[in-house]
Every structure is written in structure tokens, then in C-alpha cells.
């Protein structure tokens, strides 16, 4: 007994095979993948470049975790950032100072978004807005690392605020650059 495949099913099989061949041939096999590669097969988003153009910070889903990564474009390798992430927290919206010493970002503290700041030289992270009223988003750090500007909903609408970290912080400036007081 001979089985016949209906014509409509043959057309679907033909187009499925053709589509899969086209998709396979258009895939990007030439993207360098590896532990020191900038590109990966995972979602990477929200890029931020340091003022000197050397460091790139972005959010990635590599290694099965939502994380903030810092990539040295000159050395073409990832820069270690120990003690930045805490379990069960999300990090978003990175911003880098001039040499990438300071990284400002949004994280969560007891379910509310707060602005965090990571100092790569000291390898320490701190929350800049621990008792802040309202929601915060989109932080951006000044090139010298003294000021952090962000959006806030403290007045019931989105406004801009500037947080001054104070005159006694160690500024992120290139070696040999003159320091002009504000």
C-alpha cells in the first residue's frame, strides 16, 4: 500500500527546508566568541564608553546571569570587577568616568531602584541614594567622578537632579592634568 503525502504538506515541508537553509547560511559564524571576546551569542545592551575611550561598560546575559561587564578596548579583555554584584539584584544603566575608575549604575535595594557607584581602584561599591524619596533612573557620572546626574520622580514627575559627591573625593583625571577648583 502506497502512502501519498498531500500536496499542501509537501509545500510546507519544502518551504520549511528552504527557510532553515537560508537562516543557517545567514548566521554570523564569524563573530569571535570566547571568554575574552567582546561579542557573544547572548544579549548585550546599554553600552557606556569611558571619557578616554578605553573602557566599555555594558549589561550582559553571559554565563547565565544578568551582569555588568567592563571591557578594556585597548587590551581586548574584560576587566575584573569584584564585589560589584550582589545575589538577587539587577544592575542597569552603567556610566563611566573619564578613565573608567568610577562606574555609576542602577541597582535594587529592598525592591527599590537606587544609584550605586563602584570604585575600580578601591574595588568597592557603595549606594549613593540609600534613603532617597522617589524612583531614580538613568545615572550619568561626570568625567572626573565628582558629580552624578540622574532622573528622579520625587516630585511626582521625572526631573533631573545632580548629586555632588563632595570636594574631598579622589578625582578621576588623567595623569599630569591640571586641577581647576569649581
Automatic annotation (TrEMBL):
Give me the segments passing through the membrane: none
Q: Which family does it belong to?
A: Belongs to the TolB family.
| Name of this chain's protein | Lipoprotein LpqB beta-propeller domain-containing protein
- Species of the source: Dulcicalothrix desertica PCC 7102
Amino acid at each position: 500500500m502506497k502512502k501519498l503525502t498531500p500536496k499542501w504538506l509537501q509545500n510546507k515541508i519544502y518551504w520549511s527546508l528552504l527557510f532553515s537553509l537560508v537562516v543557517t547560511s545567514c548566521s554570523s559564524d564569524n563573530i569571535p566568541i570566547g571568554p575574552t571576546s567582546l561579542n557573544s551569542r547572548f544579549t548585550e545592551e546599554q553600552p557606556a564608553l569611558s571619557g578616554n575611550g578605553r573602557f566599555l561598560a555594558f549589561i550582559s546575559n553571559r554565563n547565565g546571569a544578568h551582569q555588568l561587564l567592563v571591557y578594556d578596548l585597548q587590551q581586548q579583555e574584560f576587566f575584573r570587577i569584584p564585589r560589584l554584584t550582589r545575589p538577587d539584584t539587577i544592575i542597569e544603566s552603567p556610566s563611566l568616568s573619564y578613565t573608567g575608575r568610577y562606574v555609576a549604575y542602577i541597582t535594587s535595594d529592598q525592591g527599590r531602584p537606587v544609584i550605586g557607584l563602584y570604585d575600580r581602584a578601591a574595588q568597592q561599591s557603595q549606594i549613593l541614594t540609600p534613603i532617597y524619596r522617589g524612583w531614580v533612573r538613568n545615572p550619568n557620572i561626570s568625567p572626573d567622578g565628582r558629580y552624578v546626574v540622574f532622573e528622579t520622580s520625587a516630585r511626582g514627575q521625572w526631573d533631573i537632579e545632580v548629586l555632588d559627591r563632595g570636594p574631598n573625593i579622589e578625582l578621576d583625571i588623567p595623569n599630569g592634568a591640571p586641577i581647576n577648583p569649581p
